Amino acid sequence: MNKFTAAYCTTRGVRKHNEDMYTIVQPLATKPVDRERGWIYAKPDNPQLYAVKGYLAIVCDGIGGADNGEVASKCAAQDLSQRYYHDPSKDIATSLTRAIEATNSYLNRLRRQSHSKMGTTLTCVVLHENTLYYAGIGDSRIYLIRDGAAHQLTEDDNVGNLTKRPQYLKNTSPTALTKCIGKKQNINAAVFTTDLRVHDRVLLCTDGLSNYVALRHLGTLASQQTPQQSVNSLVDCAYDAHSTDNITAVLIDVAKIVAPRLPRRHFRISSPLQHAEDTLPYN
């Protein structure tokens, strides 16, 4: 069996409320652990599920202000984890894509019913055998830490990354989101894959960390200590850089990999090209 160790931290930072949320599904958890802004649990009733579905981690950053953001991020993280493991497909990319799309529809319904402006970013990974499956909506990020260097896997869904910015967005902040969970009915979720190696680490974090810690420091801090010490160092570094946002980080250490019995065909699911006129800023 593969061996992954997860470390995590979330803090409101200098803000009054914490709108971040993380969820980790790990087989070694003996019972659900419900923290204020985190949820760690296992499915002991079906241990074989991990052999098929792998191990899931999620980080969300709510938007819409205080209560709305807190509700959106928590609902998205918990809903996605349940939908993913209950999806009947044995194809991980298919299950994860459908779960993300369904969670987006669920949050859309909540937003309409509550007449609120809730929404959330969402990053998630599934570690299965020697493959990392990952997806990102919004500007929370996923990094692969290998040989002491950090490699950004996701691209921020914001105005600054639009290939061609339409006229009506000319004066919009480049950090304004063009995509998030709960704001549009169709988000064209995309799942990507990359290989995993022993001693790799995978970092999921919100922009309260990634906007304040340089890439070269991310690689060093995330790799030179135990996973929990590394997470604490990353959060401290963001504090020292005067982060003005909530800060959340989940770091997964790949301690052991059991190679698949048959060669795996790596694949990439790409979303359709995004048209500038279909994008709207959300923050």
Give structural attributes.
single chain, 283 residues, alpha+beta, Phosphatase 2c, domain 1, seven-stranded mixed sheet, five-stranded antiparallel sheet, 27% strand
Structural summary, described in words:
With 283 residues, the protein is α+β, with helices and mostly antiparallel strands. It has one domain (3-278): PPM-type phosphatase domain (Phosphatase 2c, domain 1, 4-Layer Sandwich), CATH 3.60.40.10. The chain is 26% helix and 27% strand. The protein contains six helices and twelve strands. The chain has a seven-stranded mixed β-sheet. A hairpin with a 2-residue loop joins strand 3 and strand 4. It is globular and about 50 Å long. It starts with a strand and ends in a 27-residue tail after the last strand. The model is unreliable at 263-283 (pLDDT under 50).
Chain-wise SSE layout:
Blueprint lengths: L2 E9 L8 E6 L7 E3 L2 E4 L7 H5 L1 E9 L2 H21 L5 H23 L4 E10 L2 E7 L3 E6 L2 E4 L39 E4 L5 E5 L1 H4 L4 H7 L5 H14 L6 E10 L27
Helix pairs in contact: 2-3
